[in-house]
Amino acid sequence: MTKEQHIRRHQDLHRSLDELLADFITHTEKLPSKTYITELLRWSHQQTIAPAEKEGENGGPEKA
Predict the structure, then answer these.
(1) 10 Å Cβ neighbour count for 24?
(2) How far apart are CA 2 and CA 6, in angstroms?
(3) What's the predicted TM-score (pTM) here?
(4) Quick check: helix, strand or coil at residue 38?
(5) Is residue 37 situated within a structural domain?
(6) 8-17 pLDDT, tens per residue?
(7) CA gap 5, 8 in Å, rounded
(8) Please, are residues 46 and 19 in contact by the beta-carbon 8 Å criterion?
């Protein structure tokens, strides 16, 4: 892997991490600074098995 490829790969990974964290915050309403990385990883893995919808989406119960 060239240096330029390595840089591009990490840029892609950063964008993916940003998206994952935004999804985590949207669905759990938890902040990454208040969450153990293991909780994020378990949640992320669970989403690969059975994605959860945020409450209030598609006619589900909505939080007050």
Answers:
(1) 19
(2) 6
(3) 0.74
(4) helix
(5) yes
(6) 999 999 999 9
(7) 5
(8) no
